[in-house]
Amino acid sequence: MANSMRSLVFFLVAAVGEISGCYAFWIWLRLGKSILWLIPGLIALIIFASALTRVDASYAGRTYAAYGGIYILSSIFWLWLAEGVKPDRWDLLGATICLVGAVVIMFAPHRTTF
């Protein structure tokens, strides 16, 4: 259980890093703000990549796939908290479906060899 909680923390840190890093690029390119937004954006993306490598999983592909569910849920929160758009039932249903998939990917008894 401790490894699961540790992995969840790293998934959440990765999500904040990825979303905020990408949002910094959005601010620069889509909103026409200063190129200096790339500095915190790049730092955040480095945090994202570093955190994702700390997740307790045997294979990178499974880690990235399971992270997708956490990323989607985090993006819905970002939509609400940072952009002021309240998620609707379809946003929440989609995020729930993705989280179920992430749990299956991370905790199913996978074969270790092919």
From TrEMBL:
Coiled coil: none annotated. The keyword Oxidoreductase does not apply. The keyword Cell inner membrane does not apply. Keywords: Cell membrane, Membrane, Transmembrane, Transmembrane helix. It is found in: Cell membrane. It holds the Pfam family UPF0060. SUPFAM superfamilies: Multidrug resistance efflux transporter EmrE. It is a multi-pass membrane protein. The chain crosses the membrane at residues 34-52, 64-80, 92-109. Belongs to the UPF0060 family. HAMAP family: UPF0060. This is YnfA family protein. It comes from Floridaenema fluviatile BLCC-F154. The lineage of its organism: Bacteria, Bacillati, Cyanobacteriota, Cyanophyceae, Oscillatoriophycideae.
